[in-house]
Design brief:
This protein is mostly helical. It contains eight helices and no strands.
Length: 195
């Protein structure tokens, strides 16, 4: 996952440009359907559209995660509710798109295949374009996971800071190892929940 962080944004954009160029080439060659009948071609194009939508949706969710992390790091906790709602809507969309992808894969005869195995099934003219789409989706999902983990770490730090502040106001004192004197907790409900 670290190699994605080291991949400059310009390279990611170049990958998108290369994908778009390959798609234009396929369009000029009649999509290079390799003898696909009309129905299968429509299913295949629908599959490509869903992969692109999955990538775009993962990108949108990642941006929300990044904005959420920035808001929390700047102590703008009042913004969290809006970010969480956007994130939930994005996740629901992602799940719906993935279900649609699985239905299309099943109709194409790829229901039990991994992306690597699908690449082995398609004609060579479609292989490179599909490979670029899969790679772009994989990279975006990996970046999403990293952004989510970062946001969770920042939120956990803020929760910890808040807990310490509340505990100090309640008069709970810790030693350097964060060990609580349980005799002090007898008068504080907070200790019942968190100690």
């Amino acid at each position: 996952m670290e190699w994605i962080d080291k991949m400059p944004a310009a390279d990611r954009e170049a990958g998108r440009e290369q994908r778009n160029e390959t798609e234009r080439d396929m369009d000029s060659e009649g999509r290079g359907d390799g003898g696909m009948d009309k129905n299968r071609q429509l299913l295949y194009e629908g599959f490509l559209d869903v992969i692109r939508e999955l990538t775009d949706t993962a990108h949108q969710i990642r941006r929300v995660e990044e904005e959420k992390a920035v808001a929390v790091s700047h102590r703008r906790h009042e913004l969290l509710d809006g970010f969480i709602k956007k994130e939930q809507a994005g996740i629901l969309k992602l799940q719906g798109l993935d279900q649609h992808r699985m239905r299309l894969a099943k109709r194409l005869g790829w229901d039990s295949l991994t992306f690597s195995q699908i690449l082995e099934e398609v004609p060579p003219v479609q292989h490179e374009y599909l490979k670029m789409l899969f790679l772009e989706l994989e990279q975006e999902l990996m970046r999403l996971i990293q952004s989510k983990e970062l946001a969770e770490r920042i939120i956990n730090v803020r929760i910890y800071e808040l807990l310490i502040t509340v505990e100090r106001k309640e008069g709970i004192l810790y030693d350097n190892t964060r060990t609580v004197n349980l005799d002090e907790c007898s008068r504080v409900n907070l200790c019942d929940r968190y100690v």
